[in-house]
Each structure stands twice: as C-alpha cells, then as structure tokens.
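Sample pair:
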Amino acid sequence: MRIAQLAPLYEAVPPPAYGGTERVIAGLCEGLARRGHDVTLFAAGSSRTSAELVEVVPSPLRVGMTRAEMMELAPHLHLRMLADVFDRASDFDVIHSHVDIWTLPFAVTTDVPTILTMHGRLDLDHVRRTLALYPKVALVSISNHQRQLLDGIELNWAGTVHNGLNLSSYQSARYDGGRHLAFVGRIAPEKGPTLAVEISSRTNRPLRVAAKVDPLDLSYFETEVEPLFAAHDVEFLGEIDEARKPTFYASAAATLFPSDWPEPFGLVMIESMAAGTPVIALRRGSVPEIIVDGVTGFVCDDVDGMVDAVGRLDEIDRDACRRHATTFGVDAMCAGYERIYQRIMDERALGIAV
C-alpha cells in the first residue's frame, strides 16, 4: 500500500524526549515500512524515519517558536499541510492523519480512503460538536473508553487500535531492588503529581519524578508542585530522554499513575510494564484496558486504594509485566491498522462511503 502519515508539527518524529503521539507515529511508520508498505511521512524537520520524509516546516514548532507564536501560527501551518497532502491525494492508497479535527473538512473532499486517529480527549464540547458535523469520516480510537465518551453521536468508528511502541530497550532493563516509587510524564493537575507525593508520604517510600513542565503548566508547578516536592524530599529529574527511561522505570518498586482525567491511552503504563515495573493507577479512562489488575499492577478507585496497593507489590511477578507489555508492541499496532486500511479500501472499491 502507498500510505501517507500526517503528524502534528509541534515535535519531531520521534521526539528527543516528551511527545507520546509522535513516538507512536514513528513506530507506526517504521513498522509499516518494514512490512513492505510505501510510507510517506509528513512531519516537522529533524524527524528521522526509514519512510519517505516530507519536511513540512524546517524544525519542530516547539523548538523555533514561542508559545504565543505557536498559538498564532500552528493552525495555519497544519491547515497548509493538510491542503497540500489532499491536493496530491491520488498519490496514495490511504491517507492516515494524526492531526486531530483539522483533518475533517479535508477528508470529505477526496475519494481516497482516509482515516483519522484521535489521540486526545474527546469529551470537550468543541470536539464533540465538530466531529458530529462529519459522521462519515473514518475514525480510529486508541482505547475503547476513549470512544465511549461520544456515545449518542453518530460517528464512523473504523476500529480501536491500542498504541504501540518499540519496547526492546525497556525489556532488557532489570530491577535492582529499589524501594522508591516513580512518576513519569508531565507536570499538570490532571496527571496527579500531588497525589503521587501523598502516596509516597503515606507509604514512607521515596519518590523519584521524571517529568516535563510545559510552559502552560509552569505557574502550577512553581506555586503548588515545586514546594510540595521540596517539603517531601522528592527527587525531581525533569524531562529525561529515551536512553534514560528504561533504567529509570526498572529501578523503581512501582510506577504511580494517579492520572485523574479520562486518559485516552497512557504510554507510561506500557513503558513501565515493559521494564518489569508494576503500575499502580487510578481507574480512569483507558487504565483497565492496559493494566491487568493484580497481575501487572493494581487498578484503584481512589488514593486510599493506591496506598494499599503499595503494600501488595510482592504479589506482582515482574516477568508477567514484561510479557503483557509485548501485546502493546509496534507489530500489534501495525497489524491493527493494516486491517483497517484494507477494509476501508475494499469498502471504497465496492462503493461504500468511508
């Protein structure tokens, strides 16, 4: 198949550090190319791929622009990319966009099968209203829970494909007997860093945090999180790159995932399990789809349950965590998308609108 992959322009594909969507796209492009497909990636400069790369902008927007400049120019740049790709739609058998709802008005202008993977939360009013205007565009969810947020709206769900990553470097990392708990991701209220501190304090275990502070969340970090970290001797490493993450996870007794919002997927969970480290998480969004409760970690209803779960870590087999993580590898993700691509191509050939 000739497949176009459209990536957001904020980060390179793959990103040097934080950037979950871009890491997933990188794995998808590599996996599809390895499986014999002709893949063209439309992405920011500095991206690296074995697919054909079309550099839409010279560098990732977060590198070359201030936040104000991004707010002003990002819509224009993404819309320009979409216009250029759909102008040459006949060059492809399938167009696969990861560029959110901006894709929708373009997808209905072509006969080339087009799918849109929704990587973010879908319960926002502007997202719900916009998706409802395009009920025939083929959508892919990254968890079953993600699409449940839109129950009652007539939409064309082509399937659910869980995110996948190349996890080989994680699976070779080994536990060194550490007692500490880990928190990885982004410092934001919905991610629950203050809850992680509470759990650490109540269980008398050290907490190590490897997380990005986005400019949007800087005030929250400085006024609420940073003083709390200082008061509880939390080791804050900031944002760490891919080379350091496997050891960071593997050295912990458990990874805390107190995310308190409808989490669409949560790559932290599969990274941690791949390193053999159980995950203790709140029952939100996709969490019950990713963690096998009592086997690869614990799915908890509240912070009290997470505190109790820390005391049960000896029930978890770290090798079982690694085995389960393999179900979220790149090959499984690529196979899921291949099935969807083929089905929508067959439906288009039969004259069924997609």
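The two ends are 18 Å apart (CA to CA).
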